[in-house]
Amino acid sequence: xxxxxxxxxxxxxxxxxxxxxxxxxxxxxxxxxxxxxxxxxxxxxxxxxxxxxxxxxxxxxxxxxxxxxxxxxxxxxxxxxxxxxxxxxxxxxxxxxxxxxxxxxxxxxxxxxxxxxxxxxxxxxxxxxxxxxxxxxxxxxxxxxxxxxxxxxxxxxxxxxxxxxxxxxxxxxxxxxxxxxxxxxxxxxxxxxxxxxxxxxxxxxxxxxxxxxxxxxxxxxxxxxxxxxxxxxxxxxxxxxx
Length: 242
Fold this sequence. Notes:
There is one protein chain. By secondary structure, this protein is mainly α. The chain contains six helices and two strands. The termini are far apart.
């Protein structure tokens, strides 16, 4: 590979790619050595472990430097630059390695897109849950009331069926109001008693009238004949009736 195919990068950037330092932008370096455009910092950091062996083969001195995150990055980078220099000239990976790295990056990007979509969907659902949380207590109370109403409906249905069975013997018959029947009987009794009282009174009056008329009739029947008695004209008009 000719020198024209090489590109110079700061030693600290190369170290950041290998160590996975999120504070340093390594997208350009990752895109160059893999032969593809990389716009995502996460995807660029994925390239680091895959590029480590390739860089170690080019520069075995990199194997002497391993960053412990408990150590200051500035001190670590300064020590590496003093041993390796401020910049490092790197060629891109060979086509075989690039193909393997590209395949791995494509899977990572697809998975990342899926995770992002699911995360967004989860966020929306969580927001809806938060919005509905105040209504959960109301929903529980409504569910309780629905259960009570269902129990009442079942009870009323059972009672209605029982009443329907009890009413079968009276099907087609006129229902009678007991109180109304008693009132009718009482009125009939009162009416009959009143009629009896009026009849008795009329009979008594008729009896008295008959008693008063009886002596006159008896006198008329038992008195002398019209041709007998004083004042009757006889043949001689003497008035003795003879």
